[in-house]
Amino acid sequence: MVGPLFAALRQEEPSTHSPYAQAALERHKREGMELAIRARIIAMAIIACLLPILNFEWEMLWYLALVLGFIGIGLLQRKYARVGASRPEIALIFADVILMIVTVAVPNPFNDETWPWTAQYRGGGFIYMFVIFAFATLAYSWRTVWGFGVITATLWMATYGLIEWFGPEQAHLSEAVKGAVAPLEDLGDILDPNSAQGYIRIQEAIVLLIVAGVLATTVRRFSHLMMGYAALERERANLSRYFSPNVVDQLSQSDEPLKTVKTQNVAVLFVDIVGFTRYAADRPSEEVIQTLRDFHARMESEVFAHGGTLDKYLGDGLMATFGTPFAGERDATNAFDCARAMKDAMAIWNREREAAGEPPIRASFGLHYGPAVLGDIGANRLEFAVIGNTVNVASRVEALTRALHVELAATAALKEQVERESASGAAATECLSKRPGQTIRGLDTTIDLWTLGDAPPAGATIH
């Protein structure tokens, strides 16, 4: 029987949980243990204050010592608390139960009056066992709470057997009680101070197991809710890899699924490293990957800082959209500001690289604004996609930056939308220079582009 009881106490939750679930378990255990120790200290402090009021005698020192013992066990439980198996925690759970049984069943050694052990054992202190259970539900798993109940019921009945068979009797007290209530023989048996009243002790153990089962079920339901919350946190973290925090908040509060296909105006931004193939050709793969990670980290940060959606990484570049999955009032402006912030971030990074003796990295940016189709694509593995001619045009505008020897190029459609969104009108885009009559593959007519930042010919800054 001992093996299953130890197993019940040692098992917290299955070890196959995701990191979010594991973190939730650890947070629950830590916060629960803090609540449990605070509740224990408050409860013991109240009891310690009541003891002198109830009986201002030296014998109360025994109970004050027991109160300090309970506080000490609680502090040790907080010290050794962890998710999963913990032998010190198991030992401290046993210590809690044993100390409670000592409090309830063992006569006060400072009391001049010698009571029969049976009278002390059945004196009504059993109800305090449930206080220990209340603490357990704050900090332990449902398995531990149930194991706690089984252990307590077992030790309680074992104590009954020891007292019944080995406890000293005072026969004269039994005779005096039965003589006082004669001829009510049943009442005499109930009041007999030498009778442990086994049938009542059995009822107490059964009730304790019932309460332990109910509390364990409650804790289990709470654990399932907590795991559900951890799953939501995981889903939210997955969303945050693609969408900015404010968009994640909107998605979390929206009942509209992303799989709903819709068409709306969006701003599309393409970013690419110029000459990266030549840069990577004669460098170790570890250095190449680290460079890409540094580049993507800086670009991704600016996308999210400006309310954009990271649509995908494209090797040494990326595609970001603004106005997805929900259109806003400043989508084109956010895209334009993001591109300029990326350009500034690249300048800062290049200064750091030059200080470290590394060659600078040049990036190019292409922007367009127009209608696109939004929705999930795929069968088993879904992907939120933004597709349409607007995306194609933005990609080709970015590619034209090489021929134009500029860092940033935007279509007239994006420029005009930025001016409409801005209170200052044309002043919002006065930094741009016009490049008329550009041919874009996929369009029937030439379009005007607006550029920012002169750049050397492709490959001049990456060797």
Structure report:
This protein is 59% helix and 14% strand. By secondary structure, the protein is α+β, with helices and mostly antiparallel strands. Strands 1, 2, 3, 4, 5, 6, 7 and 8 form an eight-stranded mixed β-sheet that branches. The C terminus is likely disordered.
The coarse silhouette is: rod-shaped
| Number of distinct beta strands | 8
Poorly predicted runs: 4-16, 458-463
> What structural category characterises the helix and strand content?
alpha+beta
Radius of gyration (Å): 37 Å
Write the layout of secondary structure elements.
Blueprint: H1 2-10, H2 19-54, H3 60-80, H4 87-105, H5 117-121, H6 129-139, H7 142-166, H8 171-181, H9 185-191, H10 198-240, H11 245-253, E1 262-273, H12 276-281, H13 285-305, E2 309-313, E3 317-322, H14 331-355, E4 363-377, E5 383-387, H15 389-404, E6 406-411, H16 412-421, E7 433-438, E8 447-454
Parallel strand pairs: 4-6
Antiparallel strand pairs: 1-3, 1-4, 2-3, 4-5, 6-8, 7-8
Helix pairs in contact: 1-7, 2-3, 2-6, 2-10, 3-4, 4-7, 6-7, 7-10, 8-9, 13-14, 14-16
Précis, in short:
This protein is α+β, with helices and mostly antiparallel strands and 463 residues long.
Give the tags:
single chain; 463 residues; alpha+beta; 8-stranded mixed beta sheet; 8 strands; rod-shaped
